[in-house]
Amino acid sequence: MTEPKILVFDIFGTVVDWHRSIVREVLARHPQVDADAFALAWRAGYQPAMETVRSGGRGWVKLDTLHREILDRILPRFGLDHLDDTQRHALNLVWHRLDPWPDSVRGLTRLKSRFTICSLSNGNLGLLTDMAKRAGLPWDCVLGAEVFRTYKPDPRVYRGAAEVFDVEPAKVMMVAAHQDDLAAARACGLQTAYIERPMEFGAARPKDVSPDSANTVHARDLMHLADLLGCA
């Protein structure tokens, strides 16, 4: 493989554990609620909400707003429609407070020693910056869909990342725990690294993390990716 210059990372599920983080916070705030089901329901609205923007059905809306709209829709299902605006806003900010996977900070730090590392997430910049500050994620640069005014897997996001750094797409490696994200990146000429996150949706719903030979690299986690890419 040609050595990449830039590594760009999906965030939700790849670098941070959204499911466990949301379950923890919902249990702390509302212990009577099925926190596992709540987390899954909130996440289930993610792609349909972004598709309204990608399809041109509405203008650009940042992910914080989409998360809040999904939250407002699911609250009655869980008996929480009584929450006022302040309480809803505070709960919505859980996406800014997601915990990293145990290997993430150390793995990113090793990868940073050899490559430029950058987020390439559907999260908005404020969300990603708050998350990085809290979790100690050592990005060289924070990029997100907000920069390109569309959501992955729109090709403009992947090609835009290469343009930001003024490199050919082949010098950029997309790192993600989602094969559809990687397939879209490959179609734009990026290299791809798959990261196994079998517990992304919780221990009761293990993911299939079988290798796809179309990816440039397949790694168990970010520490393993650092090994495979020759980082100290």
TrEMBL record:
Keywords: Hydrolase. Gene3D superfamilies: HAD superfamily/HAD-like, Putative phosphatase, domain 2. It catalyses: an (S)-2-haloacid + H2O = a (2R)-2-hydroxycarboxylate + a halide anion + H(+). Its EC number is 3.8.1.2. The keyword Hydrolase applies. It comes from the Bacteria. SUPFAM superfamilies: HAD-like (SSF56784). It holds the Pfam family Hydrolase. Catalyzes the hydrolytic dehalogenation of small (S)-2-haloalkanoic acids to yield the corresponding (R)-2-hydroxyalkanoic acids. NCBIfam families: HAD-SF-IA-v2, HAD_type_II. Belongs to the HAD-like hydrolase superfamily. S-2-haloalkanoic acid dehalogenase family. This is (S)-2-haloacid dehalogenase. It comes from Hydrogenophaga bisanensis.
